[in-house]
Amino acid sequence: MAKYIELSADDPDELCKVAKALSAPLRIDIIKLLYEQSCNVKEIAEKLNIPASTAALHVKVLEETGLINTENQPGERGSAKVCSRRGDVVTIRLHGLENKTTDIRTFSMPVGAYTDCKIMPTCGIGSDTSIIGNEDKPRDFYLPGRMCAQILWTSAGYVEYRFPNIIPKGKKARRITVSAEMCSEAPNYREDWKSDITLWINGIECGTWTCPGDFGKRRGRLTPAWILEGNTQYGLLVSWNVEMEFNYVNGTKVGVGNLDEMNIESLPFITVRLGNRPDAKYIGGFNIFGEKAGDYPQDILLTVEY
After folding, report:
1. Cα–Cα distance, 132 to 130 (Å, whole number)
2. Domain residue ranges of the chain, discontinuous segments joined by +
3. Which residues form the HTH arsR-type domain (predicted)?
């Protein structure tokens, strides 16, 4: 599969740096040579019939611009810098083209695929067929079986997920939406048990939704058979929208937009945390439902517009 290096006129410094690196025929020869095999600096010099010092200088330029990879490996007389190609195709997007188009991508994250959590009893985690581990044991949230979870609950704390960041270089996030089926967490269930559930993206608080209760008067449309009546059955669908100017929860404005503070473009992932603030008015815990539990056939959804 071809490896692509994407450049954009929206980043003129990077574009000019790479263009300058490619402007020397000798550096083109080095790239062509590395397309066939990896070589150290001495081998490059011998194959191209140039001094080793000249080869080292050109390799440094290509390395600094990200056109090749280098790695020091032990040899017979000390270490040697081994060079390999990084890309097969260099693409240049002209200024203005990206700003006139909008792309939207949605990712579905399984409930149990969290990367961090803080759990407090009452708590538990379960699949569509059985409980995973034991109830009220925070340690069981680290069992490998959690990846099959369709429901999890905790009386306080948070769960955190990492979604892939697929925003191309040179583009900026315009809107991020997080959607999940959730409710409060009371012992058994209690329909008037309020909970202030907050979303954080990349560590930045994005808004709080006050859930009215923990719902169990009727069975959820997708509730697994092992969950008995008298316990939590379903949740409500809640959606956070984070934009440049304002943030919204279920369409209601909850604060000034802080998308620029999140440094979305600087990381290979987008961190999403759901939970109760320690100083919240209603620390009522939360349930999160997957696509095979509750009322709605969906996992946690992250939509990025860029």
Report:
1. 6
2. 4-93, 104-305
3. 17-99
304 contacts 173 by C-beta, under 8 angstroms:
yes
pLDDT digits (tens, 9 = 90+) for 101-157: 578 999 999 999 999 999 999 999 999 999 999 999 999 999 999 999 999 999 999
Would you state the CATH architecture of domain 104-305?
Sandwich (2.60)
Q: For residue 198, what are the CA distances in angstroms to 50, 121, 203?
A: 62, 19, 12
Q: Which helix (H) or strand (E) holds 47?
A: helix 41-48
Fold of the domain spanning 4-93: Arc Repressor Mutant, subunit A (1.10.10)
Instruction: Evaluate whether 166 touches 103 at the Cβ level (below 8 Å).
Output: no
CA 59 – CA 52 distance, rounded (Å): 10
CB 306 within 8 A of CB 177: no
b/e map of 83-109 (b: 16 or more CB within 10 Å)? bebbbeeeeebeeeebeeeeeeeebeb
Task: With 0.90 as the threshold, say if the pTM is over it.
Answer: no
